[in-house]
Specification:
This protein is 24% helix and 43% strand. By secondary structure, it is an alpha+beta fold. The protein has a domain of 75 residues. Helix 10 runs antiparallel to helix 11. The longest helix has 16 residues. The protein is globular. It comes from Labrys monachus. This is DUF2125 domain-containing protein.
Length: 490
């Protein structure tokens, strides 16, 4: 089981009460876009709130009793009962308690809200299909508070906390027990001058620890332990078209309430166009600190794992960026020979950027396509992507006790596939020496390849080897430090 797989499963298991969180987020994020009403709260005010909410959430959650609104003094109580949410007959039904949100109109037209503390045990049985997992968990003292401005469809502030989360995940083949310390979520939304919104969200999950099973075992093994000092996850969205996106969602909700499978295509196209380019820039960042995994006879530590994504809106010169890095990698125990430890990376980083993609033209092509002509898009969209303007660039570095390698390159995204790159390395002899110790049928071929690479390299005054590369796919040629080789023909 990989370390990143453990982290993924830890995050998935920690969100087990997903219906509760989904309903709460939806109500807080969209549902409070209602006209302010003066205190005290009234039955009429509750009905007005429900009528407004139905535009965004549909009527089913009220008809089924999933959400109920009642006046309570100077505020309104929003009572969420996830157990009443509709489910498929074979869908697992975890037992979740009802949650009450106290929503109070303020004099400035905003709404303040708080939740009662919630602690509960939950169990989700396995589904009817063979091999489906079951899980159970405990959530301690979760609370939320914040403020909503009805002039726009997003939260102004939100702070949510839980004192602890414990989960027992019994997925077939690799069950896991998990404990998370005091988790917290922060959200802010600020209006921009052009009617859009700037939104930020951060999630903190500290003090994570657990045990996992060997493949095929029925339950976790106490000898297989993992721990994570903290997980930090942050999202920022600049100039989100929140109201227009909300209008698009409401269009689909209204169609569902009418019994239609989907709204009229012309209406959807109009709403999508109004919502474009959706946002200016989306940025996400994750940092995982102090990762440790122990199995009998071996331990692995990773000081830091980081990942960043950047995505522009649907614009003419759209871009996407990805960066990740890992450092502080240590191995202990086992029977690993010293020469092998010398080539195991202690840190690495990779970056990738795709630039100047005309997403606006692609969106126009999709929105203008006739209802019976989606097949034409399979030719139109690739042509818009391979227009000679889009490009991809990347960089990477790897460091180990006995060597380090780094490189960067770029190429246009078009059928010509002509690109350039530069690679440099120190400790190349150590790499060749380690390769010579691998007892495989491909060792000889690998050594010949390394010898050829070293022969083509340029050596700098510091002894660092460099390779300048140029690839020309149409000509089926590759150049290494000025020496040209023919690529194999198909």
């Amino acid at each position: 089981m990989s370390i990143l797989h453990l982290v993924h499963r830890a995050g998935r298991a920690g969100m087990e009460p997903r219906r509760l969180s989904l309903l709460a987020t939806t109500v807080l994020g969209l549902g409070l876009a209602v006209p302010a009403r003066a205190a005290p709260a009234t039955e009429e005010g509750a009905r007005d709130l429900q009528a407004t909410l139905q535009k965004h959430l549909g009527s089913e959650i009220f008809d089924k009793g999933v959400l109920t609104i009642v006046p309570s003094g100077d505020s309104y109580d929003f009572i969420l009962d996830p157990d009443k949410a509709p489910r498929k007959p074979d869908e697992p039904q975890p037992a979740l308690p009802a949650v009450t949100l106290h929503v109070t109109p303020a004099d400035d037209g905003s709404y303040a809200f708080t939740s009662d503390p919630v602690s509960f045990d939950s169990a989700a049985p396995a589904g009817s299909d063979a091999g489906q997992s079951s899980s159970s968990g405990r959530v301690d003292n979760c609370t939320a508070e914040g403020r909503f401005n009805p002039d726009a469809l997003y939260l102004s502030t939100l702070t949510a906390r839980c004192d602890g989360i414990a989960v027992k995940d019994r997925s077939p083949g690799d069950p896991m027990d998990l404990d998370i310390g005091k988790a917290s979520l922060q959200w802010t939304g600020k209006p921009a001058d052009d009617g859009t919104a700037d939104i930020t969200m951060s999630l903190e999950l500290p003090d994570i620890a657990g045990t996992f099973a060997d493949k095929g075992s029925a339950g976790p093994d106490a000898g297989n332990r993992f721990s994570i000092g903290s997980i930090h996850y942050a999202v920022s969205l600049d100039h989100v078209r929140a109201r227009e996106i909300g209008d698009l969602v409401s269009l689909w909700i209204a169609a569902g309430d009418k019994g239609d499978k989907e709204p009229p295509t012309s209406d959807v196209r109009a709403k999508v166009r109004a919502a474009l380019p959706l946002w200016d820039t989306l940025h996400t960042e994750m940092g995982i600190e102090d990762i440790g995994v122990e199995i009998p006879g071996m331990a692995v530590k990773i000081g830091h794992y980081g990942e960043k994504h950047t995505l522009s809106g649907v614009v003419k010169d759209a871009h996407y960026g990805l960066d990740f890095d890992v450092s502080g990698v240590e191995f202990s125990g086992g029977e690993t020979p010293d020469w092998f430890r010398g080539i195991l990376p202690s840190k690495a980083a990779i970056g990738l950027k795709v630039a100047d993609v005309d997403l606006a033209a692609m969106a126009d092509a999709v929105l203008e396509a006739p209802d019976d002509g989606p097949s034409k898009l399979k030719d139109t969209l690739p042509a818009l992507l391979l227009n000679g303007k889009a490009s991809v660039a990347g960089n990477a570095s790897v460091t180990a006790p006995s060597y380090d390698v780094e490189g960067h390159g770029e190429a246009p995204i078009d059928p010509k596939m002509q690109g350039t790159a530069m690679v440099s390395a120190t400790g190349f002899d150590a790499i060749m020496s380690a390769a010579n110790k691998f007892a495989t049928k491909d060792t000889r071929s690998m050594l010949l390849g390394f010898a050829l690479m070293k022969g083509l390299a340029k050596a700098g005054p510091d002894g660092r080897l460099t390779w300048d590369l140029a690839v020309d796919v149409p000509a089926k040629k590759v150049s290494v430090n000025g020496q040209v080789f023919n690529l194999p023909k198909k």
